[in-house]
UniProtKB/TrEMBL annotation:
The name this protein goes by in its record: Methionine synthase MetH
GO annotation, cellular component aspect: cytosol
Protein's gene: metH1
Pfam families: Pterin_bind
PANTHER family tied to this protein: METHIONINE SYNTHASE
Species this chain originates from: Thermacetogenium phaeum (strain ATCC BAA-254 / DSM 26808 / PB)
Keyword terms, alphabetized: Cobalamin, Cobalt, Metal-binding, Methyltransferase, Transferase
Amino acid sequence: MLIVGELINTSRKPIKEAIERGDAAYIRDIAVRQAEAGADYIDVNCGTLIHNEPETMAWLANIVREAVNVPLCIDSPNPEALEAGLKLATKGRPMLNSITAEPDRFEAVLPIVKNFKAKVVALCMDEEGIPSTAEKRIEIVRKLVEDLTAAGIEREDIYIDPLVKPISTSDQAGAELIAAVGFIRENFPGVHIICGLSNVSFGLPNRRVLNQAFMVQLMTVGMDSYILDPLDREMMGFFYASKALLGKDPFCTDYLKAHRRGLYRRD
């Protein structure tokens, strides 16, 4: 089980404003709090700043690297930004987010994955976009796993992201993703499955409740990695409780550690 802290992302207004005023202390604080809350990786994403993304990525990655002892997840579709961040991701094995089955993007990003010996998030999309059917989704997953392993990437370093869609725009999106995760777990042993949870609740009220419920449902069918907000105490509580209940936490060790840290204490 792996958690990637999602909060350092310029699509979030406070992060964008902190970058605009050069507020390294704010970025550092968000990174430290996520690591202390249980994040195994800290995601760094400045993809909305397309005019100076590589420079901003380097600035952010350097701040986060110096602030925490967990590795970085460098998150961008831009190969130059990926390289700029990965050069500074020197603590532990970095993660690259992301590669896709789009031929041009795959060809551009694969050498970066290999050069930095990074774990890689592989998005379930190709040149036709995000698949609209289960059959197409499976076809893309198979191609990604086959092409990455043929290139020398170990299955255990591949994190398939089946891509979450909002249930506000498609009421079957949640059920379809749960089925896809179950299929990937059964047919591609050894690979990891990861997703950003929050998209499922886009456009609906009480988003945290939906995100938390979806996290638990996905874990029951084989999801083993999440890009989420580790400062959401209830989310983290459900995460550790679900691990223990599904037999994925030997001797309930992580659950008990979370309890001792006060995660389940009510204010």
